[in-house]
Design goal:
The longest helix has 14 residues, at 4-17. The chain starts with a helix and ends in a 6-residue tail after the last strand. It contains three helices and eight strands, in the order αββααββββββ. The chain is globular. The chain is of the alpha+beta class and 199 residues long. The chain has a six-stranded antiparallel sheet with strand order 2-1-5-4-3-6. Strands 7-8 form a two-stranded antiparallel ribbon. The chain is 15% helix and 33% strand. This is PAS domain-containing protein. It holds the Pfam family PAS_5.
């Protein structure tokens, strides 16, 4: 994470969640992160329909786009770009992992600004995969900021934040041979790897 806002929110989220995969939405105390609220987002997730909408957006986030973003689809931050941001949301919700993405936002005049998006999973009333907390922070202060809003963005980088494991990682096992002669699955951490043939 390059932006201090991202680092501060991540540290607050880590403190709240403790040994859990994610903290509860009700545990977020706005007063404790009041200096981050202008850059903050809360998303409402609908996993069956593969969509996310902006439930809350800070004043600086709205100012970047020149409008109130509450209630808008999260994908609209990317404008008409073909890149689908759902994969970012899916990692956060399905894998219960934080994600940091670099974005290049542009206005109607073609002027660009670099942004950092942080998304972190939240539980809501005991349910998972329904909320995400994040920040959208601007790198620098372009002279046109506040005059010409962003109209689209593209994802320039994506990083999945490491999970803090609470259980020991089982050692990798020696592969067993199947009746077809292929090695059986081998466990690497939380992944089960199956050998494949040549194409």
């Amino acid at each position: 994470m390059k932006h201090p806002t991202s680092r501060m929110l991540h540290a607050y989220w880590e403190r709240l969640r403790g040994e859990r995969a994610a903290p509860e939405r009700a545990e977020i105390e706005p007063g404790e992160i009041r200096h981050l609220l202008a850059d903050s987002l809360i998303l409402e997730l609908d996993m069956p329909s593969r969509s996310a909408s902006i439930r809350l957006a800070g004043t600086r986030v709205c100012a970047l786009y020149g409008r109130e973003l509450k209630g808008e689809p999260f994908a609209r931050l990317w404008g008409s770009r073909a890149t689908d941001p759902w994969r970012i949301v899916e990692i956060v919700a399905s894998d219960t992992l934080g994600v940091v993405a670099g974005l290049r936002g542009t206005n109607a005049a073609g002027e660009a600004a670099d942004l950092e998006l942080l998304l972190l999973p939240l539980r809501h009333r005991g349910r998972t995969q329904v909320r995400a907390l994040g920040t959208l922070s601007l790198d620098g202060a372009p002279h046109w900021l506040g005059l010409r809003p962003l109209v689209e963005a593209e994802t320039t980088s994506l990083r999945i934040l490491p999970s803090r494991r609470t259980e020991p990682v089982p050692p990798a096992r020696t592969a067993l041979r199947t009746s077809a002669g292929y090695p059986g699955p081998v466990r690497h951490g939380h992944l089960l790897v199956h050998a494949g043939g040549r194409a």
